[in-house]
């Protein structure tokens, strides 16, 4: 059995490591912030201790065996419910919260390691998680910007023929249209186009050509 001091160390360490990862999410004002990560980590740590040491009093009973990993294993699958709650599907192709969800899953694993007494593994994983979430973010943005497709979203009158509109885009020189989507309602036609490579000068040329034939209600460029 664990001593009271050892139990305290494991739970406090789990709370501290969970808070360290949660502070990075708190910095971006996500719903799953510092306290959420602390609770997940502490809960995972306690679950591990219960799974490993909580049933020692019945081990002497005939036909009873102990599997220390059985309850702890449910944490890994169960944390998916919390992680799913942090994922937001805004629209086709735009999903937010995946990093926070994966962070919660990692924090649960950190709690399991802390609860099982693997202090060094828990601490190293926490450091790596903070590096991945915080330090590597500017590098990720810089790299992804090189492969990021340019998006032009235009809202037109519902009476506009989308084929005629797209034909105008395709005929433009030096324009490589990667893919497009069309959404039509009773009052508005929205066309979203993704380009492999589109410079600002080419964009201005396209818009000037479009406005000669079509009246644009709204426009979004990324």
TrEMBL record:
The chain crosses the membrane at residues 36-59, 71-90, 119-136. GO terms for cellular component: plasma membrane. It holds the Pfam family MgtC. It comes from the Bacteria. Keywords: Cell membrane, Membrane, Transmembrane, Transmembrane helix. It is a multi-pass membrane protein. Residues 11-141 form the MgtC/SapB/SrpB/YhiD N-terminal domain. InterPro entries: MgtC/SapB/SrpB/YhiD_fam (IPR003416), MgtC_SapB_SrpB_YhiD_N (IPR049177). Coiled coil: none annotated. It is found in: Cell membrane. Belongs to the MgtC/SapB family. This is MgtC/SapB transporter.
């Amino acid at each position: 059995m664990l001593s009271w001091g050892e139990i305290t160390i494991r739970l406090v360490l789990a709370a501290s490591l969970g808070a360290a990862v949660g502070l990075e999410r708190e910095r971006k004002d996500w719903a799953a912030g510092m306290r959420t990560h602390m609770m997940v980590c502490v809960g995972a740590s306690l679950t591990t201790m219960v799974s490993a040491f909580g049933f020692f009093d019945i081990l002497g009973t005939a036909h009873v065996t102990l599997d220390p990993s059985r309850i702890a294993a449910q944490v890994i699958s169960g944390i998916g419910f919390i992680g799913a709650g942090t994922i937001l599907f805004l629209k086709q192709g735009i999903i937010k919260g995946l990093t926070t969800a994966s962070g919660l899953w990692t924090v649960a694993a950190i709690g399991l390691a802390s609860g099982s007494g693997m202090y060094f593994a828990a601490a190293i994983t926490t450091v790596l998680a903070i590096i991945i979430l915080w330090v590597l973010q500017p590098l990720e943005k810089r790299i992804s910007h090189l492969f990021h497709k340019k998006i032009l979203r235009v809202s037109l009158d519902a009476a506009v023929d989308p084929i005629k509109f797209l034909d105008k885009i395709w005929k433009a020189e030096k324009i490589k249209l990667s893919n497009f989507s069309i959404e039509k309602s009773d009052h508005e036609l929205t066309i979203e186009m993704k380009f492999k490579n589109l410079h600002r000068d080419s964009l201005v040329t396209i818009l000037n050509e479009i406005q000669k034939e079509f009246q644009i209600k709204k426009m979004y460029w990324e």
